[in-house]
Amino acid sequence: MNESRPESMASFWMPFTNNRDFKAHPRLLVSAEGMYYKDVDGRSILDGTAGLWCVPCGHAQPKIVAAVREMVGQLDFAPTFQMGHPAAFDLAERLMEYTNHRYGHVFYTNSGSEAVDTALKIALAYHKARGDASRTRFIGRERGYHGVGFGGISVGGIAGNRKPYGVMLPGVDHLPHTHNLELNAYTRGEPEHGANLADELERIVSLHDASTIAAVIVEPVAGSTGVLIPPKGYLKRLRELCTKHGILLIFDEVITGFGRLTTPFAGDYFGVEPDMMTTAKGLTNGTIPMGAVFSKQFIHDAFMEAPAGIELFHGYTYSGHPVACAASLATLEVFKEQNILEHAAGMAEYWADAVHSLKGLPHVIDIRTIGLIAGIELAPIAGKPGVRAFTAFKKAFEDGILIRTTGDIIALSPPLVLEKKHIDELFGKLAEVLKNLD
Ligand SMILES: Cc1ncc(COP(=O)(O)O)c(C=O)c1O
Q1: Which residue CA neighbors atom 7 of ligand 1 most closely?
Q2: How far is the CA of 292 from the centre of ligand 1 (A)?
Q3: Does residue 116's CB lie within 6 angstroms of at least one atom of ligand 1?
Q4: 3-state DSSP call for residue 38?
Q5: pLDDT in tens, 207-232
Q6: How far is it, in rounded angstroms, from Cα 158 to Cα 156?
Q7: Beta carbon of 373 within 6 Å of any ligand 1 atom
Q8: Which family is it part of (predicted)?
Q9: What is the C-alpha end-to-end distance of the chain, expressed in Å?
Q10: Which of 1, 74, 238, 425 gives a 20 to 30 Å CA spacing to 159?
């Protein structure tokens, strides 16, 4: 294992990174275990973000690591086009059990972005299979993040992810975002105000006609845009309107799936069932890349009524990769054996108390929490959006905690196995960072 600095950092074009700044002041992680990373200087870094929201069971989870080691030695690769291997089928069954059989089928991808593109394509093909081929529009939401495929950025609503790329998918419209600091600042759980924003879907439907709309896609809790929690009743209303108009509802559960809100999926937390869910990240505890689209039985049924032949012309070389399947099967076992959801639920109040204790520190203008997620919004420096929070991120890393920032919002999403002592360490150090921030 290489734990020393790379000879050169010139050639790696880093994703979503200020490459020049990073390479001048690198932050290099070399190993991880449980709640901590170790950096190249041998310092422990408490992981306040589960990597990128993707390590619910903690790092280097022994059972998952062992399962990956075993599978890579047994079956390094097997195609799933007109072929199969047992782990892909076993995992699909286990995943259906994990949803209490409320979903009928799962389609494997390698990432959240691919899961989103897959779900959008399934939505289009579903309507076409039913003779409803005019339903081709998608409705996303402002400030939504659905990965970086062309489908995902088209339905997504983060301007920076769209602007450089010109024309997107045609026929996409957006609901307004639900963030409202004036009415909803400092919330625990769902904010009071804003359920009426779901009614904007009626306006969009009357503009385009329901017969042209295939699907609505939203994150139940928007993460990458800075932790936007749905107002009370908002998701239920969206569900009602989609049902009323024959529009499929897709929840992008890439960050919220696998326990982030202390329930299997965010839909379970809010008591709202979408027709499809896109997932990734926690699916394999971040160990091996994998995504998955969960679909209701009726969607799959529509494809199976077609004349014999390939029912869905879609798939990835690595759909259902054996090593990813092994990682995911082990992850689900760890969830069960270690009662990860119950543990997370037991930590949620202590977590929320700790986050809200930061109220009143310099520059803090909002704090919002749900499950094991926190958003801490800072006032931007005039004319320099994002700089204040990014400075906090760098200082936090120097002080031994990994936080994540988007714009001027600090977003926290620790491994779900964290203990009170980790919460104390995280917010003790973060408070010091904020107190000393210009
Ligand atoms: C809600 C949501 N959807 C999709 C994605 C994209 O996932 P990936 O980066 O695995 O493509 C992300 C990533 O953060 C996400 O938060």
Answers
A1: 112
A2: 12
A3: yes
A4: strand
A5: 999 999 999 999 999 999 999 999 99
A6: 6
A7: no
A8: Belongs to the class-III pyridoxal-phosphate-dependent aminotransferase family.
A9: 39
A10: 238
The structure's pTM equals 0.98
Alpha helices for 45-146 (secondary structure H):
50-53, 62-74, 86-98, 112-129
Residue 1: predicted pLDDT: 59
Mean pLDDT of 32-50: 98
Ligand 1: does its nearest atom lie under 6 Å from the Cβ of 224? Answer: yes
Residue tagged 């199969």 (tokens): 84
Q: Ligand 1 within 6 A of 223 CB?
A: yes
Q: Is 227 in the pocket of ligand 1 (CB under 6 A)?
A: no
Q: Is the predicted pLDDT of residue 2 greater than 70, yes or no?
A: no
**Left, alpha or beta for 262 (phi > 0: left; psi -120 to 50: alpha)?**
left
> Average pLDDT, whole number, for the chain?
97
Complete domains list, the chain, with CATH? 19-57+338-435 (3.90.1150.10), 65-337 (3.40.640.10)
The 3-state DSSP class for residue 377 equals strand
User: Beta strand pairing status for 137-141 and 172-175?
Assistant: parallel
Model confidence at 400: pLDDT above 90: yes
Cα gap 214→218, rounded to integer Å: 14
